[in-house]
Amino acid sequence: MALKTAEQYIESLKDGRVVYFNGERVPDVTAHPVCKITNDWVAMDYLLNNDPRYQELLTDLDEDGERVSFALQPQRTREDLLRLREVVKLWARVCFGKPTGAKFVAKDGLNAVTVVARRVDRKYGTDYAAAVEAYRKYLQKNDLAFAMGLTDVKGDRALRPSEQVQHKDFYVRIVEERPDGIVVSGAKTHISQAPACNEILVAPCRAMRAEDAAYAVAFGINLDAPGITMICAQPEISAEADLFDHPLSRSVYINDATIIFDNVFVPKERIFLKGEWEFAGDVAYMFANFHRLSAETYKAMELELFTGAAALMAEYNGILKKPHVREKLTWLVMYTEAVETLGRAAVEHCVTEEGTQLVYPNPMIANICKFYFADNWHQATKYIQDIGGGIIVTAPSAKDYFNPATHDFMEKYFAGKAGVPTEYRLRMAKLIRDLTSSYEDVLTIHAEGSLEAQKLSIAELADWARYRAAAMRAARIPGSESHPLFAELPPFPPQL
To answer: What is the mean pLDDT of residues 397-410?
Structure first.
């Protein structure tokens, strides 16, 4: 069927899936007032794909002449990566800095298992690569929304998966092997948009050892499969929230659900890793490599919104020309443009995965970009909150503003600079409150990998030999001449 309509996508969620929200079973996620926020957001993928203005960017013709999502195509060239950046930019700009989740994260997991399946096949003579490609075609032909199930609940972080004491299901594991497939148990958490997706791609989140082989498992499964239960993340808003008071959180409820696998059967044609423990870490590492492009691109668009809100609030408060405010706004501009530039540089200097036709952003530059964004987020939050003032958290609600009994009071006393409508100032204050919530603070630090994960990657990828050779040459210590970059350099100072 290739491209679905938004209406067909919504209808596909009426499949009897087991979802709980705030302690109650949700009989139909399409009818639930808060789950519907996630569904509508994910549906933007389908609306955009069917919009003639964006089809050339967002879709491709497959070998059968059917339009399929470009996001599900493997990226084989630098140009593919640049195009994908434009796709993510469009998604993020349309959806207020948060890309539609139909394929946003899991597409990168699909590319990761594409790479690792070939490695496993070469070593063990398995047929995982063919299974991955069949799954890719299935997702394309049915235009499915799918989530990435990477992060396990983990239990005691000091213990390996097989060493856990309380029980053995803190990481998803194989509990039974059958001729026609496997049975798995465990739980994944922080799984964005899962209750609004059709499928989940499950993969290991860490490196394993031989004793952890049962946990080295990757597969794709439909989210209405028997034994799968989803528990929705606690939202920041209630069903009664409106777009005035919650312009972002009423538009984007990421619903980072916890997914329980209680003896779930996975058919053998959907299995992409089954006990080959030495490749578990490769999947997690390759996912990060591919997902950096997506993450850094949308974050630049989020900062575009963030910096604009700071500038507008400064104007509405009448402090735009104050030196300390101009300094903060200039810092925010540099922060925004640096993230955009680093993200693009990682693509410009992309890496080809050996033995495949796939390319991904330069890992060193990409990790620096992610670290720079996350490490500076709280400074940016401090600046915009300082510019905005206490009104960000103390302003009354939209119900008060539009209540005839209190409207005139609010119109009079919440005004800012002359000529700026009071309503605009209040709306901007509410936007900044959403932008700088505790949820956004935690999300920025931990999404796409923690700060420590970036530092470890950067240290591992660093060209220490080049750095040392440069210092040795300047200090006149023998050995720098063995490095190719310094071997042929003329002496300095010159012998004149």
So the answer is: 97
Domains of the chain, with CATH numbers? 6-277 (2.40.110.10), 282-461 (1.20.140.10)
Q: How far apart are CA 113 and CA 135, in angstroms?
A: 11
Which pLDDT tens digit goes with each residue over 98-140? 999 899 999 999 999 999 999 999 999 999 999 999 999 999 9
DSSP 445: H
Whole-angstrom distance, CA of residue 19 vs CA of residue 480:
62
Phi, psi of 319 (to 5 degrees): -120, 15
Higher local confidence (pLDDT), 123 or 240: 123
CB 358, CB 352: distance < 8 Å: yes
**Taking 70 as the threshold, does the pLDDT of residue 1 lie above it?**
no
227 CB neighbour count, 10 Å cutoff: 15
Q: Among positive and negative, which fits the CA dihedral 35, 41, 46, 50?
A: positive
| Residue of 319, 462, 314, 444 lying closest to 388 (CA atoms) | 314
List strand residue ranges (DSSP E) for 211-352, in order: 217-222, 228-231, 257-267, 271-274, 351-352
**DSSP notation for 218-254:** EEEEETTSTTEEEEPPPPSS-TT--TTT-TTTTT---
Indicate the pLDDT class of residue 445, thresholds 50, 70 and 90.
Answer: low
Q: State the Cα–Cα distance between residues 438 and 246, nearest whole angstrom.
A: 14
If you search the block for the tokens 């008071």, which residue do you land on?
245
> What is the CB neighbour count within 10 angstroms for residue 117?
24
Q: Please tell me the pTM assigned to this model.
A: 0.91
Q: How far apart are CA 459 and CA 447, in angstroms?
A: 20
